[in-house]
Design brief:
Structural class: alpha+beta
Number of helices: 4
Helix content: 10-25%
Radius of gyration: 18 Å
Strand content: over 45%
Shape: globular
Largest sheet: 10 strands, antiparallel
Number of strands: 10
């Protein structure tokens, strides 16, 4: 909840919320015909389970600077330069996309998995992440980084991994979560 409050506070102060991956869409209410604003968060998610049900596979796409700044840049001066170089992209409605696979062990034994490929939209990355995941914990793959549109609410995805000596390919659609959906899903954590 603390993270969510910090993010919303940051969002409220921002003069241009697209920098942080937010989007507002107006949709007509089917009952009243009035336009209603739908506030989309900077997060897309896709979830699937392993065949044996012991592992949750979650692909998370984070729009904006949150994951880029937290994982790539360290000094304040490099952050400032990086942000300035991104301004032109942001003016055109483009933002950073950081896509990561979370493997969540829901069993009472260690799990070993090797992530081999991630594809989000037209961008793809070969992975060689060999992970040993302790019971009731998770591991995250290396990120796929790209620049893409801040607008939209769905993205085709593909994940390939090896689990229990068998290769799995999971394909689907990652859906952008609304701010309300994020609050409902993660507020208690």
């Amino acid at each position: 909840m603390t993270f969510f409050k910090r993010l919303i506070s940051w969002f409220a102060k921002s003069p241009d919320r697209r920098h942080y991956g937010y989007m507002v869409e107006s949709k007509p209410n089917p009952e009243t015909g009035e336009l209603e604003a739908v506030h989309y968060s900077p997060y897309y998610e896709f979830e699937s389970y392993s065949e044996d049900g012991s592992m949750l596979i979650r692909l998370v796409i984070t729009l904006g600077l949150e994951r880029v700044v937290n994982t790539k840049l360290s000094s304040e001066s490099s952050v400032a330069g990086f942000l300035e170089s991104r301004d032109e992209f942001y003016k055109d409605g483009l933002v950073d996309w950081v896509s990561e696979i979370y493997f969540i062990n829901q069993s009472e034994s260690d799990i070993q998995v090797k992530a081999t490929h991630i594809k989000v939209g037209q961008e793809a990355l070969a992975l060689e992440d060999e992970l040993t995941i302790a019971p009731f914990t998770s591991s995250i793959t290396h990120p796929l980084r790209s620049i893409n549109s801040v607008y939209g609410s769905e993205s085709d995805i593909e994940i390939t991994f090896i689990y229990k000596n068998k290769e799995y390919k999971v394909a689907g659609v990652a859906k952008r979560m609304t701010v309300d959906a994020i609050n409902l899903k993660y507020a208690g954590q």
